[in-house]
Amino acid sequence: MQNPRVLAALQERLDSVPHTPSSYIETLPKAVKRRINALKQLQVRCAHIEAKFYEEVHDLERKYAALYQPLFDKRREFITGDVEPTDAESEWHSENEEEEKLAGDMKNKVVITEKEAATAEEPNPKGIPEFWFTIFRNVDMLSELVQEYDEPILKHLQDIKVKFSDPGQPMSFVLEFHFEPNDYFTNSVLTKTYKMKSEPDKADPFSFEGPEIVDCDGCTIDWKKGKNVTVKTIKKKQKHKGRGTVRTITKQVPNESFFNFFNPLKASGDGESLDEDSEFTLASDFEIGHFFRERIVPRAVLYFTGEAIEDDDNFEEGEEGEEEELEGDEEGEDEDDAEINPKV
Amino acid sequence: MQNPRVLAALQERLDSVPHTPSSYIETLPKAVKRRINALKQLQVRCAHIEAKFYEEVHDLERKYAALYQPLFDKRREFITGDVEPTDAESEWHSENEEEEKLAGDMKNKVVITEKEAATAEEPNPKGIPEFWFTIFRNVDMLSELVQEYDEPILKHLQDIKVKFSDPGQPMSFVLEFHFEPNDYFTNSVLTKTYKMKSEPDKADPFSFEGPEIVDCDGCTIDWKKGKNVTVKTIKKKQKHKGRGTVRTITKQVPNESFFNFFNPLKASGDGESLDEDSEFTLASDFEIGHFFRERIVPRAVLYFTGEAIEDDDNFEEGEEGEEEELEGDEEGEDEDDAEINPKV
């Protein structure tokens, strides 16, 4: 194998058959490999520039958070009923309404009469009752966490806010869950803080794809007496070893609840690594935090009405479904809103 | 059905059974629906703020493009062989090399001898031959477009650059394909321009998720005589109707080629809508443009070595694969780099 001619012949053969990229690299002359290494060094430098880019994007997000806030404050006021929207503020023409208008007069009249009859005796609750709780019910990722005994508590949830870390501080965001006064705990706000990192990993710089959540912190919930749903009390009979007498003791053990969200595991920062179950739990927690920040808080009403959920579903089913349609329909009726553009 | 009590009872029943979000909304009192409409109005305003955010992100991308450029220029020089990297510039310790070092001395010696033998007679081509062409071969989305007769042309490709539109101009980017002088065409640069839109759709503002590619433009390729691979000449026998004589005519018809990338369809801007085949073709084209800009140009070396392709594969297989692993392995050897963080 040390005969260079044999090597060269082998290289030629490797070169002419289909091959995996990495085996192709192996066949290249040393001088070329050296230049590839130089390209890799440049690539690491690019990853560090990219990290700075994402820090600036984070600054932009902070700036825009301030621009969204007045609208989110208004949203909160409409939801709680503190403020009633004006007629102009609540105008909305949905596609269905347009269709209704196009339908015959006769039908319209019936609809109006029905509506009027309903309005006369219809209750007028304050604001939009159970707004946030309904979102918890609509979003699978959240409803999976919510136990029956969490539900009456979540009905007191009045707002969720995202607060970004101050400029110059380590990158992070806080989810604030604002509750109205309730019988369960005395806190008015429960918080969950997510710490992020925008820095290529030294051991694997090429895997860098932007900021990641790396750790999180909860808060202490000041439960009112007997109201803590995150623990349950179990009774246990205990036999005294010497005397043989039996006594019943009560013991508090952890209980499944959404409110465990505020008492998360800690990511191992001190070299101790988590077991796989814990890693999985933590990964799910990070995903939920990310989802609150990226989707639910910015588009709450669409998760309340379900519009965002339908969109998410459509998106997942995606291209395959579309292809099937292409074969079936000779003449699409309403195809001009097909998703033909990749999101940039 | 006009009896409000019946309606209320019905609503209660609807409320207590599992239901789709939209049917739930139907059951709500008119006053609440009105407030939901107000929330939707606010949501549209949020979408417009988000559009401005993405415009600023685009400005940031432009700023960072200037920071990457010196590194990309260096990359080009190493690839073409115009500049040879210094020893410091080409230092690289891969994981495999570390493993090799850990292996016994004996084996190391053999490896070194082999390498030296190889070096002695090894060719030293200029730069990194066929760098960009190899990327075209490695990336499925591109290799599908490349015909055998495109290959010798693509071997002359020396650089791909992304140029962003100037500030204040409509959002767009240009892909520049730089070729060395060759026997096929006289252009030194072929360009493909992608026009983008960062603006919520009036008819469907909630679908807005950031800038989209909405149209593209190619360029004229000045083919040298007989070298145009995007057309083929076919011979056709023609019979004169009156005289019955037969003559052979030649006709140029379109031919499959990667270089049709520079002669794309136009998105319908003038109300005429494309047929489904054309929409599909255009959507694929936009996806390729996006992929060049987002992945290939910024990380070319990783698509050359295949590292980025493995990553893409891992990413697609994603979570399901991981779960299986969790069940199988009792004690992962090397699990601390498991992807537990959602990308933000």
Q: Briefly, what is this?
A:
Chains A, B: It is found in: Nucleus. The structure is a homodimer of 344-residue chains. Chain A is 47% helix and 14% strand.
Largest interface: A-B, 112 and 110 residues
Shape category of chain A: flat
| Name of the CATH architecture of one domain in chain A | 2-Layer Sandwich
The helix/strand order of chain A is HHHHHHHHEEEEEEHHH
Major sheet details of chain A:
4 strands, antiparallel
State the low-pLDDT regions of chain A, or none: 1-19, 103-118, 315-344
Task: Please give the CATH class of one domain in chain A.
Answer: Alpha Beta
Strand content of chain A: 5-15%
CATH topology of one domain in chain A: Arylsulfatase, C-terminal domain
- The CATH superfamily of one domain in chain A is known as Nucleosome assembly protein
Q: If strands are numbered along the chain, what order do they take across the biggest sheet of chain A?
A: 1-2-3-4
Which structural category fits the helices and strands of chain A?
Answer: alpha+beta
Helical residues, percent of chain A? 40-55%
What does this entry look like structurally?
Two copies of one chain form a homodimer. By secondary structure, chain A is α+β, with helices and mostly antiparallel strands. Chain A has helices spanning 4-16, 21-26, 30-80, 95-102, 105-121, 131-138, 140-143, 151-154, 276-296, 300-305, 307-328, and strands spanning 157-164, 172-179, 189-197, 212-217, 231-239, 246-254. Chain A has a domain at 29-85 and 127-228 and 269-305: Nucleosome assembly protein (Arylsulfatase, C-terminal domain). Helices cover 47% and strands 14% of the residues of chain A. Chain A is flat and about 80 Å long. At the A-B interface, helix 1, helix 2, helix 3, helix 5 and strand 4 of A face helix 1, helix 2, helix 3, helix 5 and strand 4 of B.
